[in-house]
Design brief:
- This protein is α/β, with parallel strands linked by helices.
- It is built from 13 helices and 14 strands.
- A 6-stranded parallel β-sheet has the order 4-3-5-6-7-13, sandwiched between helices. Strands 9-8-10-11-12-14 form a 6-stranded mixed β-sheet, with helices on both faces.
- It starts with a helix and ends with a helix.
């Protein structure tokens, strides 16, 4: 297939159309993924351009093309979240298998990364993983000055000239809250981060609205950990867990967001002498297909990590290949996985 494409490029002129991907699929009796992998080196080398409405066309002469340092620059802020790191590692592997050149650069503060960008580029696409931290206008402007397209992991930054991919955790919280309500629970608690990041703050506000709390006193069932999601410690979880007790106002179910290691929750529950689904009904917000999060014990509402990875691959690949469609916010679907940490309220009431 690559020989066929090479011959077409050698005979053709800049701007001429090449066979469509589905035409090559039919001709060589293969899949879209195989065709994309075959033409990826030509796209990366700037010999083929993907133009909306025109498909694949022969690119301009080399002298008129921009010399790209790499196809994709991935910038990631330091995080203790193993899941966030794993996603990047797998995404890099997928892009490299397609023949794309990738530069991976971590950073702790924006001053450092802005200085780094001053000596880099240009890139066809940049993926930014900020891990809930504030992203300044200055950093976004600097990235846009060296990259043709920007993709952001997480929906904290929206309404800008970038593709944004993430989960609406307010939606996940609402789905989980209704699930618990359908099980007969009315006194529902929420354990989350105390950080002021937009998504986290909005999730806390959503919980106040769902529970009908108007304040001004703190909500008695809002339990907070002073760390970002993914960085919770066992002793902090142990302290934050409510005491179910036996009084009429005791919490009957608890929603937990920000836990990426289910064994930490197991340890915290053991330390408090609590049995999930018996002494306390637990519902996690997280990834439904990451066993280390829910350890096949806790019910979980949230995204699919596999769907998230596939979506990142599709969006980043499209931008590398010159997709000129307007950027958009991509929300991941919400799923529910039941592992048995929630029971009907009647089943947990003292006999």
């Amino acid at each position: 297939m690559r020989n066929r494409v090479s011959r077409l490029l050698a005979r053709g002129l800049p701007g001429e159309r090449l066979p469509r991907i589905r035409d090559l699929m039919t001709e060589f009796k293969t899949s879209q993924r195989v065709v994309q992998r075959a033409i990826a080196p030509f796209v990366a080398a700037g010999r083929i351009e993907a133009r909306p409405g025109a498909g694949l066309v022969i690119a301009a002469a080399p002298a008129a093309r921009k010399a790209y340092q790499a196809d994709c620059l991935i910038l990631y802020r330091g995080s203790q979240s193993r899941l966030a790191r794993t996603l990047l590692i797998e995404l890099v592997a997928r892009l490299q298998r397609k023949g794309y050149r990738v530069v991976l650069q971590g950073f702790e503060d924006e001053t450092t990364v802005i200085g780094f960008l001053g000596d880099q580029g240009p890139f066809r696409c940049c993926l930014l993983q900020a891990n809930f931290e504030i992203v300044s206008v200055g950093l976004l402007a600097k990235i846009k000055s060296v990259a043709d397209a920007l993709v952001i992991d997480g929906v904290s930054v929206t309404g800008i000239d970038a593709d944004v991919i993430g989960t609406n955790w307010r939606e996940a919280l609402s789905v989980g809250y209704r699930k618990l309500g359908a099980q007969g629970h009315e006194r529902i608690g929420f354990l989350t981060s105390s950080h002021d990041a937009r998504q986290i703050a909005m999730a806390r506000r959503e919980f106040l609205l769902l529970s009908g709390w108007e304040g001004p006193a703190p909500h008695p069932r809002l339990h907070m950990v002073p760390r970002l999601p993914g960085a919770y410690r066992r002793e902090e979880l142990t302290t934050a867990l409510p005491d179910p007790g036996t009084d009429a106002e005791a919490t009957t179910a608890l929603i937990v967001w920000g836990l990426v290691d289910g064994y930490l929750m197991d340890a915290a529950l053991h330390e408090r002498g609590l049995r999930p689904g018996v002494d306390v009904n637990l519902l996690l917000l997280g990834s439904v297909d990451v066993p280390s999060e829910h350890v096949s014990r806790f019910d979980v509402v949230g995204n699919s990590n596999a769907e998230k990875l596939d979506l990142f691959e599709r969006v980043v690949t499209a931008r590398i290949e010159g997709d000129a469609r307007p950027p958009k916010t991509h929300y991941l679907p919400i799923h529910l996985r039941e592992n048995g940490s929630i029971r009907l309220l009647e089943a947990t009431s003292p006999v």
